[in-house]
Amino acid sequence: MSSLTRSLPLVVALLTLLLFPLFGSSFYVGLVTRIIIIAIFAMSLDLLIGYTGLVSFGHAAFFGIGGYALAIAFQDASVIPLWQALPLSLLAAGLAALVIGWISIRTSGIYFIMITLALSQMFFYYFFESPRYGGDDGIFLFLKPVLMIGSEDILNLDNENNFYYFALSSLVLTYLFLVMILQAPFGKVIKAIKANEHRVRALGYSTNGYKLVSFVLAGTLAGLAGFLEGAHTGYINPAYMSWHESGVAIAIVILGGVGTLYGPIVGAFIIVLLQNFLPELTEHWQLLLGGIVISVVLFLPRGATSLFPRLLSLIRTEKGVPLSQEESTKVDTDG
Amino acid sequence: MADAILRIDRLSKCFGGLIATNNVTLEFERGQVHAIIGPNGAGKTTLINLLSGDLSPNDGVILFNGRNITRLPPHKISQMGIGRSYQKTNIFAEFTCFENCWVAAQSRLKSSMRFFRPARHLQAVQERAERALGLCGLKPRRDIQASAMSYGEQRQLEIGMMLATEPELLLLDEPLAGMGREESLQVIELLRRLAKEHTLILIEHDMDAVFAIADQLTVMVNGRVLETGTVEQIRSSQAVQEAYLGVEEAV
Predict the structure, then answer these.
(1) A46 and A75 in a common domain
(2) Domain of A332?
(3) CATH number at residue A236
């Protein structure tokens, strides 16, 4: 029963997202598509921050590489076959993550943050200064990927609704994939590494291997998000992989709730919506955004998604219903 | 010499100018409880750290079952069958008791690079974790978060995790440190039981406990081995009386 009540909000959210294009205007379908893409990106970062204990400040590099792989390979193509373009982006981002990860997982803490930042900035400047790939102007893509069997279109992403459902399926699959690996023996090890890496090593695990695999998986999923973003906007530029983008991803993860898979989705909704609507209120909207992020961090240290269970337990204690064991220990550790 | 499970030969470790382990040569017999005693700063924990791979020596050789394990990383040493517990409690504080043992038990899979089936379906790991939990006496605390347990229980969990890796040789760094009388007695009882099937190397300050469970004793002072032998030999040794035991009686 408790697993049902816990998955109920997820099911409701999924249903809402599934039905959304039937009611939303095309502007909003596009906006939610972008939110979904950013949610995939943030979720992939949460595998590192929330589950492996690796605070990467260079995650946007893989997001950008996913987008650039698509743009570079298909900028002059007359058709973009999805089954070629998507694996290419994933592979490119995964390989880049293998290289960056192989170097950076040898460090930890603040050094890990600095080295991932530095390495990702190298990618940023490479694309920023390379006239071949458009430099800081970036690359335009005039076509959307198409899934074809023979000469038959199965799925054309040129249609906004098609793209929306494709992105939504990607989000759901990413979510399920992460749930799967986190429950598997691999997930047990990376969570233990986050809790106490030294002890994991003393128990007989070669921790670097697990950290590297986690880094590569996260990078590949960020590449998926980058592919979607590139295909969706039709425009790839170096800003995709700037440290600013990495920072926003960290903010989303923290805002939504580190170490939960739904947290980054909620965080992506909050940040992207604020980024879209705050500028209408004031030109100093970034100040407001910063204030909101700081308040959440101060008052809801487990992220915005911890608000709901908190309210629930508040209401229950008001009514005089004793807390369940699980909730009371949670309250304990909060204090 | 009888069957030695672990041999160390002229082992040395310096930290800057401090020689923490100075030319130590020792043999540990299979199936025995070998306690290492000595005043604070004698280099006992450094020696254990060298054996477990947490530190690597400047000089010397460590042979485990005849195989050279000098300078192997901790995870390889663990995989060869040497388990260790730490002086400072070193557990996964936000995991439950059982999850702590689970991670330890899962380390004996050929590889944990498995991504598809849920870990909880691994029957062998489950059994190993439950057995370790039972052995260290924490079965009733199975689903309690480790950080919520008493200090003594955390120490027991520390031993339980080591047992879940099914080691042949146990390195125990002050398993009784900071424990109350009642808890100490429980752990001593546990160590006695473990001694029947394992080889134990034990650092301990509680002399009653040491004399109660140890077969062999090594006294270290200033990074050197002062004396090594059976409990009776050490008790009657003049040098040890002066350097260590005598001092404690005078206090």
Answers:
(1) yes
(2) 300-335
(3) 1.10.3470
Question: Residue A273, Cα to own-chain centre: how many angstroms?
Answer: 16
Does residue A159 share a domain with residue A306? no
Q: Which of A47, A180, A203, A208 to mutate to test the interface with B (most CBs of B within 10 A)?
A: A203
The domain containing residue B198 runs over which residues?
A: 1-81+175-251
CATH assignment of the domain containing B48? 3.40.50.300
B92 chain-A contacts, CB cut-off 8 A: 192, 195-196, 199
Does A9 map to a domain? no
Q: Which residues of A21-34 are buried (b: 16+ CB within 10 A; e: fewer)?
A: beeeeeeebbbbbb
Q: Is there a single domain that holds both residue B182 and residue B133?
A: no
Same domain, yes or no: A268 and A125: yes
**B188 with B66, same domain?**
yes
Closest by Cβ to B114, choosing from A186, A198, A199: A186
* Residue A116 pLDDT greater than 50, yes or no: yes
Task: Identify whether residues A108 and A236 lie together within a single domain.
Answer: yes
With tokens 């949460």, the residue in question is A46
Based on the fold, state whether residues B112 and B76 are members of the same structural domain.
no
Residue in A184, A213, A333 nearest the CB of B116: A184
Nearest CA in chain A to B74: A202
Distance CA A258, CA A48 (A): 10
- Cβ atoms within 10 A of the Cβ of B224, count? 15
B76 with B180, same domain: the answer is yes
Q: Do B200 and B241 fall into the same domain?
A: yes
pLDDT for the residue B244 = 64
Q: Which residues of B touch A202 (CB under 8 A)?
A: 52, 54, 74-75, 78, 84, 86, 90
* CB-based contact A203 B94, cutoff 8 Å: no
Is position A44 within any domain?
yes
Residue in chain A nearest B99 by alpha carbon: A188
A205 touching B, CB under 8 A?
A: yes
Joined together, the tokens standing for residue B80 give 């060869």
ipTM of the predicted structure? 0.91
Residues in chain B whose Cβ is within 8 Å of chain A: 52, 54, 73-75, 78-79, 84, 86, 90-95, 99, 102-104, 106-109, 112-120, 122, 125, 145, 147-148, 161, 165
Distances (CA, A) of A26 to A21, A234, A268, B58: 8, 17, 19, 69
Do B197 and B246 belong to one domain? yes
Q: Is the domain of B11 the same as that of B41? A: yes
Tens of pLDDT, residues A154-185: 888 899 999 999 999 999 999 999 999 999 99
CA B50, CA A93: separation in Å to the nearest integer? 40
Lowest mean pLDDT segment, chosen from A58-67, A115-124, A298-307 = A298-307
- In angstroms, the CA A117 to CA B139 distance is 45
Give the pLDDT of residue B105.
97
From chain A, the residues in CB contact with B116 under 8 A are 180, 184
User: In total, how many domains does chain A have?
Assistant: 2
CB atoms within 10 A of CB A98: 16
Q: Which residue has the higher pLDDT, A4 or B21?
A: B21
Read off the pTM: 0.91
**pLDDT surpassing 90 at residue A325:** no
